[in-house]
Design a protein that fits this description.
It contains 5 helices and 4 strands, in the order βαβαβααβα. The protein has 129 residues and is of the alpha/beta class. The chain has a 4-stranded mixed beta sheet with strand order 1-2-3-4, with helices on one face. One of its GO terms (molecular function) is methyltransferase activity.
């Protein structure tokens, strides 16, 4: 399953994540905070067998190119391009990053459509930069 990564936890990041999820896409939200703005209270429930999480929080991660950052945007892109959703988490664990993770907004696998249709619907979602 293809996913979109959003770095940040501000209003623009959360609004973008919400619009992409409404368009039928899956989103990884990477945040420097372990649980931004009570995020875990708003979206509760773990995914059961036969479902796929539409939203995944990867928290307590500093993204950037500075020496004290945990991972760079280009490294996230390189890992995500391999289409294995576990690679980012494995890389952070290998670097000794004490990250938090949470998944939610689960949908049955049978309800997911093909990537071309998801991309077409996502292009219709208004996003402000």
């Amino acid at each position: 399953m293809q996913r979109v990564a959003i770095v940040g936890e501000g209003p623009a990041a959360l609004s973008t994540a919400e619009r992409l999820i409404c368009a039928g896409m899956c989103v990884d939200l990477i945040s420097r905070y372990p649980a931004p703005f009570g995020f875990l209270r708003r979206f509760s429930g773990l995914c059961s067998a036969g479902t796929v999480p539409r939203l995944r929080l990867i928290g307590n991660v500093r993204v950037g190119d500075a020496p004290d950052d945990d991972i760079s945007p280009s490294e996230i892109h390189r890992l995500a391009a391999r289409q294995d959703r576990a690679l980012v988490l494995l890389e952070l664990a290998a670097r000794g990053v004490a990250f938090t993770t949470w998944e939610g907004l689960c949908h049955p696998v049978s309800e997911l459509t093909d990537w071309t249709a998801l991309t077409a619907r996502a292009k219709l979602a208004p996003v402000c930069f």
